[in-house]
Design a protein that fits this description.
The protein has 288 residues and is α/β, with parallel strands linked by helices. Helix content is 26%, strand content 35%. The chain has two domains: 62 residues, Roll (Spermidine Synthase, Chain: A, domain 2), CATH 2.30.140.10; 211 residues, Rossmann fold. Helix 1 crosses helix 2 and helix 5 packs across helix 6. It starts with a strand and ends in a 5-residue tail after the last helix. The structure holds 1-{4-[(3-aminopropyl)amino]butyl}guanidine.
């Protein structure tokens, strides 16, 4: 077994049979591996280390700083859940902002609600570039005229723009360039950038490995919004498979519209409520 330690978080392993594997280290003693056909791209952008691999079972795989961002096979779960929950919490979302989400998956789902404008603000143009090239079904939204792409720091963007109905924070883990997107100061700016009745949502990690992360996000948001709910989805390629999101608003967090026409593979209207039912390991760590 020959091992190449590319970065501390992951290894490329070539066993004697010459199989090629990409592994994300979930802990120092636990990893998730994809058998890959080849590396399609490796770029070190100004901000991040970006890989795209062609896998055997999960289609093309986007990796940023050693962490799995999305795969063609299971991306729909994450993108449907990060978008449809906040979008359906709003009566009539016309202006939508996605912070991060340079791959375009969240924008694609947002378009299903017939908004007037969807603004995607990603700090890293390389993420957009490789997604357009290697993840066409995810990045297809960029062909739509209602999508406005801004290559900019999301923190600055929310300071200078406003009047959004829904803001979705589709970032990487809270390390590296995304750190600021998990802080109270940022949430205050998000609130200001929302119209009355506005709704925000954010991914907040694996509650199995990092229960405190979702809890900290929830507590920080509770200082700013009247209502905050955590919810979960099951994503095979993320650490532990169990993934947390948060939705926040001054309005009541209930489904305000019918989501049955959305053409979804994971989301349905029963899941809107079911996803907010939390197992004890999550509840215990984050009591109201
Ligand atoms: N952004 C969140 C990915 C977090 C995964 N973390 C990990 N593998 N350690 C996904 C971006 C998709 N648009």
């Amino acid at each position: 077994m020959v091992k190449f330690a590319v970065r501390f978080k992951y290894t490329l392993t070539i066993p004697r049979s010459m199989e090629l594997w990409y592994d994300e280290m979930h802990t120092p003693n636990m990893r998730l591996g994809f058998r890959i056909k080849r590396e399609l791209e490796h770029v070190r952008s100004k901000y991040q280390d970006i890989h795209v691999f062609e896998t055997y079972d999960y289609g093309n795989l986007l990796v940023i700083d050693g962490t799995v961002q999305t795969t063609e096979r299971d991306e729909f779960i994450y993108h449907e859940m990060i978008v449809h929950i906040p979008m359906l919490t709003h009566k009539d979302p016309k202006r939508v902002l996605i912070i991060g989400g340079g791959d375009g998956g969240a924008a694609r789902e947002a378009l299903k609600h017939n908004p007037e404008e969807v603004h995607v603000v990603d700090i890293d143009e390389k993420v957009v570039e490789v997604s357009k090239k290697y993840l066409p079904r995810i990045s297809s939204a960029y062909e739509d005229k209602r999508i406005h792409l801004h290559i900019e720091d999301g923190l600055k963007f929310v300071e200078n723009h406003g009047d959004f109905d829904v803001i979705i924070v589709d970032s990487t883990d809270p390390v590296g360039p995304a750190v600021g997107l998990f802080q109270e100061d940022f949430y205050r700016k998000v609130k200001k950038a929302l119209k009355p009745h506005g709704v925000m949502a954010q991914q907040c990690g694996s509650p199995f490995y990092n229960p405190q992360e979702a809890c900290q996000v929830k507590n920080a948001l509770k200082k700013i919004f009247k209502n905050v709910r955590l919810y979960l989805a099951y994503i095979p390629t993320y650490p532990s498979g169990m993934w947390a999101f948060v939705v926040a608003s001054d309005d009541e967090i209930v489904r305000k519209r019918d989501g049955s026409m959305l053409n979804t593979k994971y989301y349905n209207d029963s899941i809107y409520e079911a996803a907010m039912v939390l197992p004890n390991i999550v509840k215990e760590n984050c009591e109201d």
